[in-house]
Design goal:
globular; five-stranded antiparallel sheet; alpha/beta; single chain
Length: 551
């Protein structure tokens, strides 16, 4: 059939269009097929799959449309074509599962060359439970009402944890939350004004094109950090997920109640409210650490392994010492500082990596403030405050490829140390756990692989202008659209996967792959690798190299 229960298929089945005859195996002198199975045999030899799964499969690599002499002509011919393609799909083995604890390489990384391991704290060493997002949302929502005098009704807008994903862009001019691919193309169907999806026609009317100018997204100087002159802001860390939900809830409230608003002002008010509530969040987490922080037993083992191998460890975080001390004591123990050669808090990244004029200060734990005396050396067991990466490198002699730094934010944690200081970098992307679980789902694998084969069938048939071909093509396109939405929605119903649009990598993926040498879902995933292990990137497939019906 062309597509199950499709109205188009129902119409096709009522027709009796016979424009050619396929009867038996082999060809006569005129090139016509004598057997119906000969048509299917040629179909089996025309798909771009190299591995043999059944005895009937012949691994000849040629597109279907090359067989002009056996070109399907009737509706039943195209139905046979569809069913044979479906049968071939069903005969193929599904891709093997991706290991949930795997470490993925963007660049070749030889750990034997790494002497120094650096770590961020939030969402790198300390991974938070989902309840933290609820806490941040509620605190920021309350601040919008009490501090910024937003309507009291906003206090009733509840957090929806599955609404947004990391890496989206907010258009401060148009008030839209959008998803971009690595080529700066809008993903239609994933553009929202508030909590309401904006249809494709309106999106194209607003932007005139799916492809956005680079200056519109990144600003005129095309910096890897947000430029104040750009029209869009990317929400690139996990703390921004509740922020996006609050922002969209507020805009939805204004839209439904016909309240005039300025999208840029609402964005900045929401961002300020979210940032201002962090001290309250810190105090709340410190009172009940177990409620908010995931404990990882292997973290201590990983630190011990690095120490035993003679590696140096350091911690650079934007969080205050009291908050870090509480969390690290819970995760590692009261002696957690013994594992680190240098600990720097309130570093104010990314300025820590870019501003060379900010002096590093010793932190006084009794007065809970910094000491003004100049720091001439960095001592183990002491806590330091602010400073810059230039001072860290000068005082410790840690430079270039001998340093591997882990963080969760591709920009504020990884970009500058990669581009300016030649450090090696690792990204901790906790969403990978959900993404990999979805990728390993049997139904997802089937849908994704059938989508690839159906798309190839459409591509090979689309130039046939006959009525039977066009009727079937419409049905196949309808089924393809359904499959595209299925494979998107299983990750997130509104925005799909963090890492890809329908077929391209996302803008977030592009930046991640550029600034991270390796990435994984949890820092302890590296524990199983030796300190001399080399991570090798996969050979990427370019469109012109070869075709595959597999993911």
């Amino acid at each position: 059939m062309c597509a199950a229960r499709s109205p188009i298929v129902s119409a096709l089945l009522k027709q009796n269009v016979v424009l050619g005859c396929i009867t038996s195996t082999g060809r006569n002198g005129s090139g016509r097929l004598r057997h119906k199975t000969d048509f299917l045999r040629h179909l089996n030899t025309s798909t771009n799959i190299s591995d043999t799964v059944t005895a009937e499969t012949v691994t000849t690599h040629a597109p279907i449309n090359q067989y002009q002499s056996i070109k399907p002509k009737s509706v039943s011919d195209f139905q046979e074509l569809y069913e044979a393609t479906k049968k071939k799909f069903q005969s193929k083995k599904l891709p093997v599962d991706v290991h949930p604890d795997a470490v993925f390489a963007c660049n070749e990384l030889d750990l034997s060359e790494v002497q120094v391991y650096g770590f961020d704290y939030d969402y790198t060493l300390a991974c938070y439970k989902p309840v933290l997002e609820d806490l941040l949302y509620n605190l920021a929502r309350e601040m919008l009402v009490k501090r910024f005098r937003y309507p009291d009704d906003i206090l009733h807008l509840e957090y929806e944890p599955n609404f947004a994903v990391r890496g989206l862009h907010y258009d401060v001019e148009k008030g839209l939350l959008v998803k971009l691919d690595s080529f700066l193309q809008l993903q239609l169907g994933s553009v929202y004004r508030g909590r309401t999806k904006v249809d494709a026609d309106e999106v194209l009317k607003l932007y005139h094109n799916r492809l956005l100018p680079i200056a519109y997204v990144e600003g005129p100087n095309n910096s890897h950090r947000h430029n104040t002159n750009s029209k869009m802001v990317q929400l690139a860390d996990l703390f921004s997920v509740p922020e996006m939900c609050l922002l969209c809830n507020v805009i939805e409230y204004f839209e439904r109640n016909r309240i005039d608003y300025n999208p840029e002002i609402v964005f900045h008010d929401t961002r300020t409210a979210m940032g201002s509530c962090h001290p309250i969040m810190h105090a709340t987490v410190m009172k009940n650490t177990e409620k908010y922080i995931e404990r990882h037993p292997k973290l201590v083992q990983y630190f011990q392994k690095l120490q035993k191998a003679g590696k140096n460890l350091f911690l650079v975080t934007n969080s205050p010492f009291s908050f870090v001390n509480c969390g690290m004591t819970y995760l590692v123990g009261a002696n957690w500082r013994d594992y680190f050669d240098v600990v720097i808090v309130q570093a104010r990244k990314p300025k820590f990596f870019t501003d060379e004029s900010r002096p590093i200060r010793l932190y006084d734990e009794k007065t809970r403030s910094h000491v003004w005396d100049r720091v001439f050396k960095l001592e183990k067991g002491r806590i330091y405050y602010e400073g810059s990466v230039r001072q860290l490198q000068e005082l410790k002699g840690w430079r270039g490829g001998s340093v591997l730094y882990f963080g969760d934010h591709p920009y504020s944690d990884l970009a500058d140390v990669t581009l300016k200081h030649s450090w090696r970098t690792g990204a901790i992307i906790s969403e990978l756990a959900h993404e990999i679980k979805t990728l390993n789902d049997v139904d997802f694998k089937k849908n994704a692989n059938w989508l690839q084969m159906l798309t190839q069938l459409i591509e090979d048939t689309q130039d046939d202008d006959s009525e039977p071909a066009q009727l079937c093509l419409r049905a196949w396109m309808e089924e393809r659209d359904q499959l595209r939405n299925k494979t998107k929605n299983v990750f997130n119903e509104q925005f799909g996967s963090v890492f890809r649009t329908y077929h391209n990598p996302t803008y977030f993926s592009r930046r991640l792959f550029r600034f991270a040498d390796i990435y994984t879902s949890d820092i302890t995933n590296l524990h199983k690798f030796s300190t001399s292990h080399t991570f090798y990137p996969r050979r990427g497939v370019m469109p012109h190299e070869y075709a595959s019906h597999f993911i």
